[in-house]
Amino acid sequence: MSSDGGELERTLGFLEAMTLGGGTMIGAGIFILPGIAARNAGPASSISYAIAGLVALLAALSLSELATGMPIAGGSYHYVNRALGGLFGAIVGWGMWTGLMFASAFYMVGFGQYIVGPIPWLDGRHFVIALGLFGLALLIGVNYYGTDESSALQNVMIGTETAIVLVFVAVGLFFIDTANLTPFAPTGPAGIIGTTGIVFVSFLGFEIIATVAGEIKDPSRTIPLSMILSVVSVTLLYVLVMLVSTGVVPIDVLGDSPIPVSDVAEVSMGTIGVAGIAFAAIIAAISSSNSSILAASRVIYAMGRDGLMSEWFNESHDRFYTPHRAILATGGVTALLILLGLGVETIIALLAEAASFSFLVAYLLVHVSLVVFRRADPDEYEPTFELPGALYPLVPILGVLLTVVVISQMATIIIVIGSGIIGLGIVWYVTYARTRTVGSGLFRDAITSAPGEPYRVIVPIANPETQHGLLRLAAATAHANEADGTPELVAINVLEGTRDAPNQNIESKRLEHQRDLLQNAHVIAEEMDVELRTRAIVAPEISTGLVEAIADEDADQLLIGWDGVLGEGAYTFGHTIDPVITRAQCDVSLVKLVEESIGTPVALVAPGENAETVVRRAFEFASVDDTVPTFLYVQPPAAHPGGDTGTAGREILGDIAEAAGLEPDEYDAELLVSDDIETAIPAAIDAYDTVCIGLSHRTDSTGILYGAFTEQIALNATGNVALVRGTVDISDR
Amino acid sequence: MPPIGELTILIPVDISDPEPPPLDVLDVLRPFEVVLLGYFPVPDQAEPALIKHEYEADAQTRLDAIAEGRPDVTDILVFTHDRGATIDRVADQYDCEAVLTAGDTDHIESILVPIRGDVNIERIVSVVAELVRGSRATATFFHSIDEDGDPSQGEYLLRGTVERVTEYGIDADRIDWQLAEEGDPYSDIVALGEQYDIIVLGETEPSLRERIIGDMLSRIIDDIEIPALIVRDIE
Predict the structure, then answer these.
(1) Which residues in chain A have their CB less than 8 angstroms from residue B45's CB?
(2) Who has the most CB within 10 Å: A82, A90, A225, A456?
(3) Contact: B48, A150; criterion CB under 8 Å
(4) Which domains does chain B have, with CATH numbers?
């Protein structure tokens, strides 16, 4: 037995998610920005951090629900892309990538500042920039070469820096001089909100948990727990750090310092404090920058997966298996951004605010996406973490409002730069991506209401290219039943697996299958003039998945392909097909297609439960090639000696056809009287391209009475074979 | 402990290697259930789905080539950041009692089983019993005494273990034991290994000393040339 494609292991547990989220957040944001924050809002800057934390929390809540519904790489980008389509997907994708690069540059300049600051003989901004570039080069080098299982090191680094910050806060509390805390808000509410925009970059980390969602173990629990916990705990930490900083050192001194927290530590803990903070700041900058680089390559991968980014970027290195091009590109642009610092005085504030802007826009769209998903309610959207009734739609609405308010208070230059980035995304979409993406967003589904009851045919498809014939047949059947409803086909692909497998990334495979289906299906749907939907679902067994889908979709018919091989042992057809035939609550047609053309079908008619359906199917299949079906009634001679078996036979045929809703001119009736039906029938049907026979559903152990005779015909017929049964009322069993 | 019955062995192979070993040992292990795990190590920097997209076809071909002609072998392909976690997961999923690592061989006639009197001894014993039963090989249990240990204790442990194996219906003259009263167990085992075809080791928690000095199990596996069958400690 061989595997059907590779599995993807999930390897990041709760601790790793927390250090990824929380650890990235405790980056340069908390070590550098207090100076700028103090200058812009005074001691009330702690409120700025609190508001930023609230915005982050709202985003984390919406993201948590979306992420558990689609635990796959890409984070905000992926959900916006699916909800709102390629244009907004491109905007958010580019916004995230550039945002992460701005953030990375910000971290590395901070890194430079914290080395230069404490060392007296090292002075001047060119040193800062040079060190920042040097640190970046090291990081890019390490990431280019690739690391294995670096999460242990990451955990240690984050643990250390967090411990140092906690000590800083604890000691600092004793050194607070309340005189420094008044006036509390010298720049008023406008200043506070404006500062929120700058410091928001300090909250970027939680997003990364969603960006690497495809690698998180037990995503249903881990993602919401780690995202929300990390935002809440880090917000508390920030508020305390700001209160301590503005309390210990007067804001004008704080505002001028490039290493504000270090200066505070000098007052409260002397040189040891300075060394400790500098050390913490340096590891924080490195680890946060590293996470941003990793996240950026995931975003680029996700965009490439959806056709929004060139595959060239995603090619991995032959030996190292790292996405080296994406890493180099990310590093290159980040380096340029750092270099800007040579010319721009306020580079740090600029980088921080620009990163914040990109992500605020992204989160705004995430909130909108959540609403779209809730309203469109696509079948595959089954989040394990759902916003409770009280929080929806409060959270997305509040989220959108707050982000708009914060953005509105940002510096003009930032809004210009940020809009430029959005423009870049739009241009990219229009020129490159529009023709390459598959599938539009759910927006249409969210705002339109469901049409009237369709006549729905379900077709399980493994490979749309080879199952063209099956779909054509299904389309013909659906069209023929137009009187019962708009013809609709649902092509379904079932992946075996557990939806919430804690250790495997099944979602990625499911998405791939979905994409393949969609791509091939569009062409077919247009050609056959039928509504076609596609669904890729995951179920523990293929048969279970199909039976559930049939019930879910309230299907009228199931058309399933058969390779003509019988099952072994207790199975009639096989472990997948048998349960479907017994349990599907609709008409079932099991079709063996050996020729492209359906031609003229012949229906083998015998009195029984399925006769009507057999006859009906033959008629529907005939419409593919526009032929007239033949209904063949077979019987041994002289059941009643002296009776005219011919007339009786034709009468029975006529009755069955009438019951199936067919006029006498819509079919050809044939009678075959023979006492050796075993040889007579195969000879009679040989002339036809397709034969339809009924499957009985009287029970044996499998519930399928499949006589040796039917078997012989099915296996030996030279043309196409359709085994048909009508809808069974399961309550009969 | 009840007999295990069908012995299921997991064989992990690094499938990113363009020329993975032919694994003749697969033929030798025919009497047993074999799960062949082709793992593709993915660096932290890459999303596993990305690597899978690029290399799945090649990896699957290599895996199929190894499994060719051996239809009873279950083969699985996994793209993973963490080899150890994947081995544990797959072993649990397929109820594998032991994991085969390192080295290749085309015959199993003599089996070396170093033991320490661990909790895992029952599992080791039942795996060895199945191995002997299915391969017609002979097995030798080896124990090395600590510097201030008691030789009679060591002998008691070894004799007892041999007896436990015979309880599984294995002929007593297929089992042997050897006691080392002095010397470094690690180098003894590696040296002894040269005379055997396969070594069976119990997976156990390393002792405190080992955590500091280095996991002896890994050192043995690294330096020994014969295949090592590691019996999992599931309880």
Answers:
(1) 143, 146-147, 293-294, 297, 322-323, 327
(2) A90
(3) no
(4) 8-96 (3.40.50.620), 110-231 (3.40.50.620)
